[in-house]
Amino acid sequence: MSSKARIELPPKLIPVFSGPARYRGAHGGRGSGKTRSFALMTAVRAYMFAEAGVSGKILCGREYMNSLEDSSMEEVKQAILSVPWLDAYFDIGEKYIRTKNRRVSYAFAGLRHSLNSIKSKARILIAWVDEAEDVSETAWIKLRPTVREAGSEIWVTWNPEKDGSPTDKRFRKSPPVNSRIAELNYTDNPWFPPELDEERLNDRNLLDDQTYAWIWDGAYRENSEAQILSGKYRVAEFTPAADWDGPYFGIDWGFSQDPTAGVKCWIHDQRLYIEHEAGKVGLENDDIADFMIARLPGIESHAVRADSARPETISHVKSNGRDTRKCLPRIVGVEKWKGSVEDGIAHLRSYREIVIHPRCTKTLHEARTYSYKVDRLTGDVLTDIVDKNNHYIDASRYALAPLIKRRGAAIVQPLRM
């Protein structure tokens, strides 16, 4: 008679551990539960190997490990102890973890100084590298061939810090064939503790956004000169007042790969406030107006400015088959000119600051990542703009189109609407 054991994981990790893969991994910020989840799954897999009569080692590595106190041993122990049937299956000592039938045991090693000893470890079934952001390219090159048993796997968990680190390039920028990698942040952790949430809220109030995003949202730590809105935005809750200018609504079209994105924003005291956002990939023309009306309060009764590159979409959304309940009757395409994108960016940067409401998570992501190109050889920041991470930013430019002037033209103050 067979029985089933239950293991609880953050939902975003279920695809990571489903089906065959050579590489499994997760990257993200603090409080996501990725380290505990991967520690737990090493024990589950060790149980499965041992029950199947397979002998070998679960290798837990970090770039630096001077003693077991620097290793993942305690995480693995706590994960095993948290599940009664795993606790009953393992023999846990002060300096060892192994199945009671001794078929599978754990080994802990620092990759920087212990690679030669790792090569000699027999039958590595799984190599899990935690805190992998600082793992060198040399370590990855040497580790991978040592994990060579049939069906063996390499797991990696890390908090991104530098855009282009060896770990980031291998597992995030260009994930290897037969890999399952996910981003996991505190918002993806169903068991995110209230104590950590208090810390997160304190950091939101005390830290600059880039540092906060690195700690909690899995963003890169570096505040690069290439970031277009660097130093110009912050995150805060707000309620528009009666004397604010606006609201201003903008939409950027997308479909198969990019989202159709919309924003609602205001202007007050030389500050731009982005209050609401709405976006979806694969949004059909018939559904655009209804989708935006449900998420951008008041859009159906105000002027809406959109990308003029899709006049047929504008026409459809304006009438929507003459269904006046699901249309945006005041939508128009914006004027464009050579350099209009650059002039729009200059306008955005002309505000004292851009205040983004915390619920506008996609807009916030773009504010952090919208960038100029960087010369591959010299690292110099160029004047060309990277055409990505810009859908909600473009929607904001379109919303403010009447206020954006060609270079050299006078700046016009916003009109009350």
Descriptive overview:
This protein is α/β, with parallel strands linked by helices and about 425 residues long. It folds into two domains: about 20-190, Rossmann fold; about 225-405, 2-Layer Sandwich (Nucleotidyltransferase, domain 5). It has 13 helices and 17 strands. The protein has helices at about 35-50, 75-80, 85, 110-120, 135-145, 165-175, 195-205, 210-215, 285-295, 310-320, 340-350, 360-370, 390-400; strands spanning about 25, 55-60, 90, 95-100, 105-110, 125-130, 155-160, 180-185, 235, 245-250, 260-270, 270-280, 305, 330-335, 355, 370-375, 380-385. The strands form four sheets. It has a seven-stranded mixed β-sheet with strand order 9-15-12-11-10-13-14, sandwiched between helices. The radius of gyration is 26 Å and the shape is elongated. Mean pLDDT is about 90; it is low at about 410-415.
Radius of gyration: 26 Å
CATH architecture group name of the largest domain: 2-Layer Sandwich
Give the H and E element order: EHEHHEEEHEHEHEHHEEEEHEHEHEHEEH
Q: Which regions contain 5 or more consecutive residues with pLDDT less than 50? A: 410-417
The largest β sheet comes out as: 7 strands, mixed
Overall pLDDT, averaged?
89
Q: Report the oligomer.
A: single chain
For the largest sheet, list the strands in their spatial order: 9-15-12-11-10-13-14
Structural class: alpha/beta
Q: Please indicate the count of domains.
A: 2
Could you say which overall geometry the principal axes of the C-alpha atoms support? elongated
Distance between the termini: 72 Å
CATH top level label of the largest domain: Alpha Beta
Residues in helices, as a percent range: 25-40%
Number of strands: 17
Beta-strand level of the residues, as a percent range? 15-25%
Task: Could you tell me the CATH topology label of the largest domain.
Answer: Nucleotidyltransferase, domain 5
Total DSSP helices: 13
